[in-house]
Structure formats: structure tokens, C-alpha cells
Amino acid sequence: MMRALVVGLMFFALGSIVSADVSVNKNQRYEDLKTDWLRGNADLDTLRKLAALADGGNVAAQVLLGVISRQPKTYFHVFEALPPGERRAIFRKRDGRFGKPWLRVAAPFNDLAALLTRTEKKDSEAYAMALADAGATKIAIDFANLPANEGDMLGTLRVLSHPNLLPHTKALLHHLSESMEAGLRLSNRADEADEILEFRIKLQKPDLKDRLLALETPDVIAFADLPKEREKIRLRGLMLLHHPDLKQLIDIMYDVCPDDTAYHMGVLFYLNGGQLRLALLSPFEPVISTQDWQQSERFRGDFLRNWSSNSVRFEMLQNLSACFAAAVQAELEPR
């Protein structure tokens, strides 16, 4: 029961490998195509050109395509009309009936590709740490769930406190470790709770900018109660509209929800478990940095499409923020 509690909390609340870059075969053709893709126009044409470059042995293009392929919400809208064979021709090298994923093709020549395609992960904490070392920030944070899923809550906290992740997880760590400790004490697991407490004592205190972007215990609203908490939601959104690190998102929100924008910003905060900071991390790091992604023309579409789902979360989004949900659906139209 305790493990289920922590897993629920994680989903709610939540480069030192020098050779793990994509410098092999990086050339002007690759750079031009990456720039075209970041512009967000003619995605299908650009991906086909990248596939041709990758098929010619360009490892940088292979890694970029491999990283993109793991984020289907960024490209599915341009793939819907394609037959399976044409889809495979973009994200896989011709090899047998179904082809070979580009990351596996690149793995013998590139440490990042080898890490992302590793099949044996006997130590989930060590694997998440290796991802963090490599600068794969968002992926490492996602994998940080695994130690807690396996009963090692402190292992998850250690991953989230990795120096490369800490700028994004500092406030999350305070809320998560507090919740873990409380749950352990309620389960009469005092020794484990004391270990979490010792970890919490050593944590760097988050500043106001961090705290505004993270859920804290007094802020929690039960999912079912969100429709009844409009003013609390609006207040949080109003503060976020003044946050210096959210310019690109703020611009989107004023555009798609010009009426009562503060409230709609607050809806995103609460529906994302109070972790907008994590939702704003580039899912393509370290190949494409968060800064480059957020400042690119494609950021808006990628961010909006990431909210698409048949889940209860999207149903609630439609109920609470029809304007934002409509913007999401517009981005999902086949291109």
C-alpha cells in the first residue's frame, strides 16, 4: 500500500559523458535540417531528408531521428495519413521486414544512443543517474520513478537531486520527500522515515521562483475538487503570469485563452500536478536543449500536442479550460 501511495505521488508531483554528444558526422547539412525541423514547418519533408542523411551513415542524424521517434506526440499529426512502410522508412534503417531503429544503428558509435538503447537495467537508480550524467534531463527525471516503484524511495530522491536535475527538481524534492516521510511514519517504518528526514535536512531550500513552479502541501487540490476551486486556481495562475522563466508559455496562454488568462494558466498548473517546470523541459535533450526548443517556432505545437490524450486529465481539461483544449485539438489536425 505504501508503494502505491508513493507511486501515485510521483506521478502527481512528478553532461558529464563527453562522448555522449552527436558530433560524429555533424555537418552543415545536418545543422540546416535540424534548424528546419525546429522551425516546425514541413515536418514530414524535413524528417524524410534527415532519414536520407541517416541512411547515408550520418550518426548525428541517426541520433536526432531516434530521439524524435520516442516523442510520438511531436510528429503523429503528420504521420496519420502515411502507410506503415513509409513511417518505418523515416525512423528505421532498412533491415529485415520491420527495419532497425536509428538509435540502435548509432549505438556502436555514440554513447548517448548506446545508453538510450540499453536493454539491461539491473540497477534502475544507476541507469537514471547515467541518463542525468549524459544530460538527458527529462528522460532521467522520468526514470527517477523506477527506484521508488521498486521500494527504494531514497534512491528516487538521490536521482532527483543529481546536479544536472536539481535546477528543475529542487522544489519537487521538498514536497515529495515530505510526503514520503509522512507515509513511512504512518506505516510504522521509522528507520526508513528517518533516512528520508536526514535527506530533507540536507536539501537546499528552494527560492520563491522555484516554489511558484512547484506544488507544496498547502496547495494540493484533489483532482475531483478542481471545478470547485476556481479562485484558488486563478490566484496561482496570476502569480505564474509574472514568472520570469515562463515567457514562451505566457505568450501562448494570452493567445489561446485571452479571457481570464490567469485562471487558465492555473488550470495547467494543477492538471500537471504542479509541475509545469518539468512540462517545459525539452524532451529531446541533450540533442536539442530546453532553451533552443522553447525559443523555436515548433515549441508551441509540441507543448500543446503533449496535452492530447484520451485520459481523464484531458477530459478535465476540456471541462475546465475549453479554450486551451480547443488549441490542443487544432494542433492535432492532420498536416
Condensed summary:
This protein is mainly alpha-helical and 335 residues long.
Q: Can you describe this structure?
A:
- By secondary structure, this protein is mainly α.
- The protein contains 23 helices and 2 strands.
- It has helices at 2-13, 28-39, 43-55, 59-69, 76-79, 84-91, 102-106, 111-116, 124-133, 137-143, 145-149, 153-160, 166-186, 190-202, 208-212, 230-240, 247-256, 261-271, 276-279, 290-294, 299-305, 312-320, 322-331; strands spanning 92-93, 100-101.
- Strands 1-2 form a two-stranded antiparallel sheet.
- A hairpin with a 6-residue loop joins strand 1 and strand 2 (100-101).
- Helix 2 (28-39) packs antiparallel against helix 3 (43-55) and helix 18 packs antiparallel against helix 22.
- The longest helix is centred in the middle third of the chain and has 21 residues, at 166-186.
- The model is unreliable at 1-9 and 11-23 (pLDDT under 50).
Strand content: under 5%
* Helix vs. strand class: mainly alpha
Helix content: 55-70%
The parts where pLDDT drops under 50 for at least 5 residues are 1-9, 11-23
**Biggest β-sheet strands, sense, barrel:** 2 strands, antiparallel
| Count of DSSP-assigned helices | 23
| Element string (H = helix, E = strand) | HHHHHHEEHHHHHHHHHHHHHHHHH
Question: What is the average of the pLDDT values?
Answer: 88
CA gyration radius, whole angstroms = 21 Å
The rough form would be described as globular
Distance between the termini: 46 Å
Strands side by side in the biggest sheet: 1-2
Would you count the extended β strands for me? 2
